[in-house]
Amino acid sequence: MTELPQRFKERMRELLGNEYEAFEASYEQEKVQGLRFNSLKTKEGREPDWEEAGVKTLAAETAKLLNMELTPVPWVKEGYYYPLDARPGKHPFHEAGLYYIQEPSAMSVVEFLNPKPGENVLDLCAAPGGKSSHIASRLKGEGFLLSNEIHPGRAKILSQNMERMGVGNCVVTNEDAASLAKVFPQFFDRIAVDAPCSGEGMFRKEEEAVRQWSEDHVKMCAARQREILEDAASMLKPGGTMVYSTCTFAPEENEGTILAFLKSHDDFYLEERECPKGLMAAVPQWAFFGADKEDDSERDLAGENGIEKYHLERAFRIMPHKTEGEGHFMAVLRRKEDGMGFSGKRSLPAYMDLKKEKDVLKELHRFLEETLTEPEVLKKRKEYLRFGDQLYLLPPQMVSLKGLKVLRPGLHIGTIKKNRFEPSHALALWLFPEDAKVQKEVEPDGTEAVKYLKGETLTGDTGMSAPCEKGWVLICTGNVSLGWGKMAAGTIKDHYPKGLRWM
Questions:
Q1: b/e code 139-178 from CB counts within 10 Å (16+ = b)
Q2: CB 42 within 8 Å of CB 216
């Protein structure tokens, strides 16, 4: 059992009353593990309502191939629990981005955010990429996603995960919220703010969170969260939706933060949503937990200044003694339609000058025509950006990011070499198998898949979709793209990135 800090236990006992014993007993139970299927990896996943129907078939097929039982997570369409003794992270499907291993409670955030294809969406505190890749799957390749992470090391991991999940319309930045707010005033239709927090809800899984906990840390997190919310709110369009979430139980960081925000933003309100199975309504009176009980002005408990009008009960909590998942808090904030909205001009990115880069385009187009079944899809696009010898395709809705630290300005297409073009791993994972003229299928539970992931040469004897003497071959597994290989003299040279290879 996790050894909980004594003061934390006292606080939770004060909050939960006669439920506390059940809450403490939940730490003796086995933790749960979850994965979420990625709709971007199947053509059917781009269709409306795939999450309601198609994912069930995919889950059944995957469970059979991986020889493990999958049980639906009740509050998210694409989420499933898997057994503790299973290892889905060490499987070709994971490397291909077919699913993302994610805490089941955390999956609820994007379900509440409910992004739609074509929208502009911001994931403000995005690492390691679970929520961002979930948002991207709901956008279905349409619209613009900005995934931001303030910590450089975590931002790199975020960028790698977005590449693995086959996301093409995402920009990854490494900035603070205030810097982004200057560039994107009232720009986004939806914003996810999974704020840095004291991490109480993850005590069962993360011992470091237990060691770092203190009441002072809770107060520091609450103050920081309020600053982040201020900047996030300024980037939301009138009529837009913002989901604030934490993985902590601390009321100061949850009900208290939301109340403070609503009291200073009369153009926002908590949107009423049906409470999914396994979740509970937030507790309005907890907003004053830890407040000075002698200060009536701070508490605002009654009369015209009462809290009833803020409807804090519309927010949600996941509690480990009530359901299978770790602690989480979500509040769906809606900005009123009133107001003029942003009236200024937004500058566009400096796209590659197609007239001056004829040689680059020539090699790119040659590769596209030789390798892809529908080369015109990429040939007709104009939003290309060149960083040295690297070529990227930017999302069409993107504005100029001048002055910001950008790790991934869009889809990495490949590297410009002398007299040739070399495609990126990101491009391979973005493509469907049928997009390539030549594919080699390796069995997901076979030796060839492992050989490929280890960087070893393959033969062209089996699994080929078409005869091929030389050229680029898309390596696939279970009808999901896995990476590039290059055929020559009957053998396929492995182009799986060295930094990702299995040992």
A1: bbbebbbbbbbbeeebbbebbbbbbbbbbbbbbbbbbebe
A2: no
Give the Cα separation of 39 and 112 in Å (integer): 18
CA atoms within 13 A on the CB side of 424: 21
Q: Strands 316-318 and 280-281: what pairing?
A: antiparallel
Which two structure tokens, joined as six digits, stand for 361?
């385009």
Supply 404's token pair.
Answer: 């910001």
- Identify which of 36, 24, 26 has the alpha carbon closest to the alpha carbon of residue 62: 36
CA atoms within 13 A on the CB side of 442: 27
Place of tokens 């403000």: 124
Rounded percentage of the chain residues whose pLDDT exceeds 90 = 86
Q: Residue 458 has which token pair?
A: 């393959």
Marked catalytic residue, from 247, 275, 468, 476:
247
Contacts of 65 (CB under 8 A, 6+ apart): 93, 444, 445, 478
* Mean pLDDT, the chain, whole residue set: 94
Task: Classify 265 as helix, strand or coil.
Answer: coil
Instruction: Identify the CA nearest to 107 among candidates 72, 67, 140, 142.
Output: 72
* pLDDT, mean of residues 1-26: 94
Q: Is 275 a catalytic residue?
A: no
Q: Which of 96-110, 177-191, 334-348, 396-410 has the lowest mean pLDDT?
A: 334-348
Question: What are the structural domains of the chain?
Answer: 104-335 (3.40.50.150), 350-391+413-430 (no CATH), 433-503 (2.30.130.60)
Residue 291 has pLDDT above 90, yes or no: no
How do residues 393-423 score in pLDDT, each as one tens digit?
Answer: 999 989 999 999 999 999 999 999 988 999 9
Token pair 């979430």: residue: 245
Residues near 454 by beta carbon (within 8 Å), at least 6 away in sequence:
501, 502, 503
Of 147-151, 251-255, 361-365, 483-487, which gets the smallest average pLDDT? 361-365
pLDDT tens, position by position, 94-108 = 999 999 999 999 999
Please report the pLDDT score of residue 303 as a whole number: 39
